[in-house]
Target: NAD(P)-dependent oxidoreductase
Amino acid sequence: MAIAYLSETEDANEAKRLVEAEGRRCHLIEGDLSDANFCRFCIDETVDNLGGINVLINNAGTQWVSEDLTELPDEQWRRMFEVNMHSQFYLAKAALPHLSEGDSIINNASINAYVGPEILVDYSATKGAIISFTRSLSNQVVGRGIRVNAVAPGPVWTPLQPATLGAHDSQWLEGFGEDTPMGRAGQPSELGPVFVFLASQDASFISGQTIHPNGGTIING
Model:
C-alpha cells in the first residue's frame, strides 16, 4: 500500500504502523496532490517501490465555508477544484497505464453533490464533478475490465469537520449529523468496508456507480 499525504506526518506514520501490523508493506509519500507533477511522481514512486498498482483510491479533499457566492474568493474556488477534482484527474491519468483487467479506481465524492448545502457551493460543485467524472471514466475503461466507482459519504466525524465547519462557527458542530435518519454522524471505520468491497472482486459487476454510506438519507443518485 502507498499513502500520499499533505503534511500530517504523525497521522501518516500511525497509518503505516497499523498497516504493517497486519503484515503488509506501506510506503508513505508526502506532498501536495493538487500539483500534477507530484501526482505523477506518486504513481511512479508506487510502481517503483511496490511493483505495480491494482487499486487507486482518490481521497484528497478540502472544504471551506462561504455563505455568499459574491464574497467567495476566486482563489478559494480555484483551490477547491485543484485539491478535490484536479487531483483525481491527474492521479487517474497517471495510474491507468499501470492498471489492467480486474483493477479499479474509487473516487471519494460526497452527499453534498446531491443535496447542495448553501454554505458549501464550491465544495459541492467539485463533488458533483467527481460523480460525472466517475461515470464517464467508467464508460471509457470498463471494456478493459477496469472498474471505476465512487463513494458519497454523508456526515462523518473526520478532522476536516472541526478544522473547517468548526473553525467558521463552533456551533455548527453541535448536533452534527443528527438530521440523518439514523440520527447521528458516521465514523471513518464505517466507510472503510465500502471501499474494500468496491476494490474487491465481490464488486466485479459494479462500475460507474456511487455507493451512499450516509445514515439512511435517500438522495436518488
